[in-house]
Amino acid sequence: TLLDDLTIGTGTTLILDGTAAPQLTIPDNMTLTINGGLEQAGGTTTLQDGGTLLLNGGASIFDGTFAVDSGADFENNGYLYLFGGATGSFADGTYTEGADGVFYFDDTEGANLTGLDPSFVHYTCDANDSATLTTALSKAADGYQIVEIYLEGDAELSDITIDASVDLCVRDGSTLTIA
Question: What's the CA gap between 145 and 105, in Å, rounded?
């Protein structure tokens, strides 16, 4: 738990290693400014009511929980990447995207995101078969800012329209058949 405001400087990374289930709590009237990086490989980061997180660098959350409570203030001026087995939970109105802010979400390995307006989110996915590709393509209808899909295998599609907001990359050695 932060007992005072803290700044993680450029070139420095705060690492939450999941082996000991670390807890990072930003309570009321405290500010964590990340100009460098945050890597979370487990445990829980909680931005509580009245707490502030200014992300000017980058954060990679690939396991554990990243929670932003109602009344908290999270301003993203860098990038946040939620993937792997991570869970992201956002209360309404707690996320502000700065001019250079990007929120990447990849649920290929089961990551889960709730409570955040998808129009803030750059959805990305590695698809390795027809079913996964079809599911990923349907994300465009959910209102994501960008949908980016990488096909890494063979897939066949029929009777499908690919939304203009979707970037579909067929990787070297993969085959996409449209019937």
Answer: 11
For residue 64, how many other CB atoms are within 10 A of its CB?
22
Q: What pLDDT, in 10s, does the model give residues 29-47?
A: 999 999 999 999 999 999 9
CA 171 – CA 144 distance, rounded (Å): 23
Q: Is the pLDDT of residue 170 over 90?
A: no
DSSP character at residue 93: T
For residues 141-154, give the mean pLDDT: 88
Which own/partner contact pairs does 106-111 have at CB distance under 8 Å and 24+ positions apart?
A: 106/81, 106/82, 107/83, 108/83, 109/83, 109/84, 109/85, 110/84, 110/85, 111/82, 111/83, 111/84, 111/85, 111/86, 111/87
Q: What is the DSSP letter of 28?
A: T
Q: Which residues contact 107 (CB under 8 A, 6 or more apart)?
A: 83, 113, 123, 125
Q: Are strands 102-106 and 79-82 parallel, antiparallel or unpaired?
A: parallel
